[in-house]
Specification:
278 residues, mainly alpha, two-stranded antiparallel ribbon, 14 helices, 2 strands, elongated
């Protein structure tokens, strides 16, 4: 790992993620064992080692992680060493970080110009993201107390967006409602402004739009595999009553011992074999 990137311990999935996986037929092909399987740690690890992995596939998963999370130097070095290619231009990975930092400090003009430098189609294909950025600009103008400038900006830059996409009108009205407050520091104004100050949310929306433009999923393949691993472990332990060491920390490759530590490796061998059928 050239950039010394560390992965966080495996987290819990929320109910929506579990439902999404449960509805995916590709995860419904695990043959249920006839009786609960019991595997000791040594047997389980031996079976994991027997799974055939291709180096090229591992490289692709790592490159995808670097690409999604913006580690440009690491991605370039891996591509050079493993002779890989990616759908996203390498320069855009670093630009994504520049865009994020500019957005978090409120420099929206730089964000929009950098996006246009990448490809003008990114903003054109994402009207809600485009509107959100302009909305942040309007909010900054209102914060600075420039009422006339705010009205002019709304008429010039946001009204055309609303005309083309009427569903955005409520969001424009919420922003313009701030002009009715003489003091933006009042509790009522602050409550209204809270939803308009989500730069972090806007940064995620912009980054997702860039990834989508280059046909790259917002979640890396590695993270999806880890979540699927967590879900499958729960299905086997809680749903099928199987007993085996479970992965609890991907970064440290740490397994939680089986609750049946005295189980014989030969016990319920047929049921255990069912877990490893293709």
């Amino acid at each position: 790992n050239p950039n010394n990137v560390s992965l966080q311990p495996l987290g819990r999935m929320d109910s929506e993620e579990e439902d999404a996986i449960a509805c995916d037929s590709s995860y419904s092909n695990i043959p249920p064992p006839l009786v609960p399987a019991v595997l000791c740690r040594e047997d389980w690890l031996q079976r994991l080692k027997s799974v055939e992995l291709y180096e090229s596939d591992i490289h692709e998963v790592i490159l995808n992680f670097f690409t999604v999370h913006g580690f440009q130097d690491a991605a370039e070095e891996l591509m050079k060493e493993a002779q890989l290619r990616t759908e996203m231009p390498m320069t855009s990975i670093g630009r994504r970080q520049e865009i994020r930092q500019a957005l978090l400090r409120g420099d929206i003009p730089t964000v929009m110009s950098t996006l246009d430098d990448l490809d003008r189609e990114i903003l054109r294909r994402n009207p809600e993201v485009r509107f959100q950025l302009k909305q942040l600009q309007l909010f900054k103008i209102i914060q600075d107390g420039n009422t006339l400038e705010a009205i002019d900006f709304a008429q010039t830059h946001l009204a055309p967006e609303v005309t083309e996409h009427p569903q955005l009108l409520p969001r424009l009205e919420e922003t313009m409602a701030l002009l009715a407050f003489g003091d933006l520091k009042s509790p009522e104004a602050q409550r209204l402004a809270e939803g308009l100050m989500e730069r972090e949310e806007a940064a995620r929306a912009v980054d997702d739009a860039i990834l989508e433009f280059y046909s790259i999923h917002q979640e890396s393949t590695l993270e999806s595999l880890l979540k699927n691993c967590k879900w499958t472990q729960r299905q086997l332990t809680e749903g099928k009553g199987c007993v085996f060491p479970t992965l609890v920390d991907a970064a440290e490759c740490r397994f939680e011992p089986s609750s049946d530590s005295d189980a014989s490796p030969d016990r319920d061998r047929g049921a255990a074999d069912a877990l490893f059928q293709p």
